[in-house]
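Lab notebook page, bench 4
Experiment: in silico fold of construct C2
Operator: M.H.
Input chain length: 300 residues
Purpose: comparison with the prior construct
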Amino acid sequence: MTDLVVATPVFLDLTFVGLESLPALGEERFAAELLRSPGGGAITAVGAARLGLSVAVAAPLGADVAGDLVRAGLAEDGVESIATRTAPRTPTTVVMPFSGDRAMVTIDPGVRATAADVSVRAPRAVAASLDQLDVVPAGAFAYVTCGDDDARAYVGRPPAALSGARALFVNQREALGLTGAATVEDAASRLAELAETVVVTLASEGAIACSGGEIVAATAERVEQPVDATGAGDLLVAAYIWADLRGAEPADRLRWAVLYASLAVNTPTGVGGALEEADLIEAGAAGGLTVPPLAGPARV
């Protein structure tokens, strides 16, 4: 049995570090460095692995240099790529962090994980996109994310197949778009009629979670000059899954998840900001968080 299989699409991220400004049409701008790293669902996979979970990735990659780079990056953290088919090319995203946010351009051939690949590892939990609910095997916890393409496809009509999902993760714009609600609280409440828990991320303000009609909030750590916010949401998902599988109470799951995401933005690339379990526990204990019952001990 594997703790977590990630079905969410995986990318090679090409990140421009130290970009002087975003170029307008016809302009050239310079950066200090170009970094290559696993992106998309791979960020969730690496984060979960560094937090001590056993993790595999079922998203197909290409038989190309980009795919080799992603597989090698995953292997460094003990994450195996288990897809039995290849994509025509590895999905790739160019990331341009600037002024606390980032712009991105993506190429994605659209080849997705299969239910057979996901189920072969008998996962306790599966991370999947909103359009991948059919790949989650019976008995596994489904942790569902929503991308820009999902938000457009399901505007005003979240899929009924969300019923029974362990948690749904959306940002403020996605939550409002999926439901047509006027506030994020109303949107979270409506979505929680389907998924067991709905987490709405609020960027630098943190996140709220709704479950059983109750809404709780967690405030993000204050970061004066974030370096790269890429992947912060993916790492929030990783830490939430970690806290849930380690037995944390619902409100604590959100607090650990928001803390993990907050600490990640000080380092370039999504995987670059993924802390090890001991470091997260140390930071959380310093802030008064309750360590999940099955997590490793805090360092002294």
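Observations: The chain has a mean pLDDT of 95. The chain has nine helices and 13 strands.
Next step: discuss at group meeting.
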